[in-house]
């Protein structure tokens, strides 16, 4: 079963090819330089850029996989959530390919993509899982008792975890995306030097909150704390917040296996704290942490294996698409 999938929910164009669960190609065209000058993603520009690069990217992915287009058995694309224009580009492109080739099609939830990217290389892993997704747009904790079944346990009340890394980076005069920059600067800093407090610690429930860290960082910059110390201390409490809530939920629900995914799952401190915990952790390989097409193809592969009905060629993009709410 050879699957080609397209991911265009935001500002990265991703095309992945997966054969029987193995990633043969995964190409991503980042639009970061295009949007940087505006200080955020401009949806109309993102849509146009997806249109202009998709043909070449599909050709590149097929070449990398050593396959011709007519050797693809199944097409997939992200249905949502995301920006409606960008979603429409990838979804319409993939549906058209499927229709033209006479192949079946799966419309995939973006977060299911992140989840199955994290399970890559763990073919034997079976639910139940506890799932933490931390990216620039999401900080969600789910219980996943069975394949395709999700129960939302908690989410951020304000900024997403990745967004906090980005905003704190900006307050330190670092570039976008902020996560990798904070991580680099933090290595030179003292993680106990700046008095950040771990948000939501001691609260009932499993929600997160990160906007207070951004506000605190701006104050600490004004008070003259060293940038490296701010980066290290912020990173320590951001990771402590994610991990603390995850561990508490795992204990409460009796879950041992957890999936941690999304752009923030690239963070080395988070990874080392997870490795040192009692949890059995599934993390995406580093090439699959950020948005990409292979994770959508992997989710489609799992949908196929578990007998999910195909999507119609008339399936629509859904900018707002909750999972398990
Ligand atoms: O999953 P992703 O690529 O896109 C979204 O769906 O949002 O996540 C991007 C986010 C950005 O906020 C970025 O700063 C963050 O992930 N990120 C990191 C790291 N690498 C990326 N955050 C912390 N540490 C990192 N190493
Ligand atoms: Zn994402």
Structure explained in plain terms:
The protein is an alpha/beta fold and 325 residues long. It has 2 domains: 2-115 and 288-305, ATPase, nucleotide binding domain (Nucleotidyltransferase, domain 5, 2-Layer Sandwich); 127-283, ATPase, nucleotide binding domain (Nucleotidyltransferase, domain 5, 2-Layer Sandwich), CATH 3.30.420. Helix content is 42%, strand content 18%. The chain is built from 10 helices and 10 strands. It has helices spanning 32-36, 43-65, 84-101, 110-118, 161-171, 178-186, 211-222, 227-253, 268-276, 293-305, and strands at residues 2-7, 12-19, 22-30, 74-80, 105-109, 129-134, 139-144, 151-155, 257-261, 280-282. A 5-stranded mixed sheet has the order 3-2-1-4-5, with helices on both faces. The protein has a 5-stranded mixed sheet with strand order 8-7-6-9-10, with helices on both faces. The model has no long low-confidence stretch (mean pLDDT 97). Zinc ion (ZN) binds at residues 110, 114, 135, 262, 291. 5'-O-[(R)-(carboxyoxy)(hydroxy)phosphoryl]adenosine binds at residues 10, 135-137, 162-163, 165-166, 177-180, 183, 262-264, 266-267, 290-291.
């Amino acid at each position: 079963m050879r699957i080609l999938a397209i991911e265009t929910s935001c500002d990265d164009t991703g095309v992945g090819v997966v054969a029987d669960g193995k990633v043969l190609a995964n190409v991503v065209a980042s639009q970061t330089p295009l949007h940087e000058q505006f200080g955020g993603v401009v949806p109309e520009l993102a849509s146009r850029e997806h249109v202009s690069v998709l043909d070449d990217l599909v050709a590149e992915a097929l070449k990398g996989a050593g396959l011709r287009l007519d050797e693809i058995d199944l097409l997939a694309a992200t249905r949502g959530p995301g920006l409606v224009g960008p979603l429409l580009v990838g979804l319409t492109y993939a549906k058209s390919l499927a229709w033209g080739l006479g192949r079946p099609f799966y419309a995939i939830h973006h977060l299911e993509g992140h989840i199955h990217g994290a399970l890559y290389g763990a073919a034997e892993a079976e639910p139940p899982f506890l799932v933490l997704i931390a990216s620039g747009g999401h900080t969600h904790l789910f219980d996943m008792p069975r394949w395709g079944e999700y129960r939302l346990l908690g989410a951020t009340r304000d900024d997403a975890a990745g967004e906090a890394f980005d905003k704190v980076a900006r307050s330190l005069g670092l570039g976008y995306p902020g996560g990798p920059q904070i991580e680099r600067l933090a290595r030179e800093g003292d993680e106990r030097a700046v008095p950040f407090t771990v948000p939501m610690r001691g609260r009932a429930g499993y929600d997160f909150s990160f906007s207070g860290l951004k506000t605190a960082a701006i104050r600490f910059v004004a008070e003259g704390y060293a940038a490296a110390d701010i980066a290290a201390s912020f990173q320590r409490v951001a990771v402590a917040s994610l991990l603390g809530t995850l561990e508490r939920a795992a204990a409460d629900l009796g879950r041992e296996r957890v999936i941690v995914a999304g752009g923030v799952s690239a963070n080395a401190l988070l990874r080392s704290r997870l490795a040192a915990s009692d949890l059995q952790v599934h993390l995406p390989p580093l090439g699959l942490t950020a948005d990409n097409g292979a994770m959508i193809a992997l989710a489609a592969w799992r949908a196929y294996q578990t007998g999910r009905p195909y999507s119609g060629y008339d399936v629509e993009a859904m900018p707002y698409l909750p999972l398990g709410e």
